[in-house]
Amino acid sequence: MFATVGGGCFWCTEAVFLRAKGVIRVRSGYAGGKTKNPSYRQVVSGKTGHAEVVRIEYDPTMISLRDIFDLHLLSHDPTQKDRQGADIGSQYRSIIFYETEEERNVALEAIQQAQNKFNSQKLFGIFPRRAEIMTEVKKLDEFFEAETYHQDYYNKNPNQPYSIINIVPKLQSFEVRQALGRLESRDGM
Description:
This protein is globular. The model has no long low-confidence stretch (mean pLDDT 92). It has helices spanning 10-17, 40-44, 65-74, 101-120, 153-156, 161-172, 174-185, and strands at residues 2-7, 23-31, 51-58, 83-84, 87-88, 94-98, 122-123, 127-128, 136-139, 143-145. α3 (65-74) runs parallel beside α4. The longest helix is centred in the middle third of the chain and has 20 residues, at 101-120. The two termini are 23 Å apart. β4 and β5 form a beta hairpin. By secondary structure, the protein is α+β, with helices and mostly antiparallel strands.
């Protein structure tokens, strides 16, 4: 089975999903735009309509599509429009792609539950948090695999400044670690 999601730089998203039990393979790439076989330079120009995404191959007996979408929504800030931190532009938008209506419904349910969680949170324990999830849900037309140097980026470049500043904190995030642990403990391990 496959799932395709985007939420900021694909290096970060890839690093998270490579650590999820039941994920077989993760490929960084581009989807959601009009340009056929885009290059990284074309996508980061913001003119192709594509988002940086990852295509996740997973074993549904070990991890569900809903688990993948929940982890995706935890692993980035889905309330930011067309950006994640310092990565700005529509190519960094939060997006979930679906191939069937069932997948679309699972995505919408995951987003609604995440929105309910955001709505129940309070800043400083007092003020209601008002943050709308901006994650798009879109039919996948085509996935274009990114250049080889983008694949398995963090594992090949753990000491690069981008990895240290952006990927390591994401992997150390309490919510992401908790979600990854939940997924692992479902097997009784």
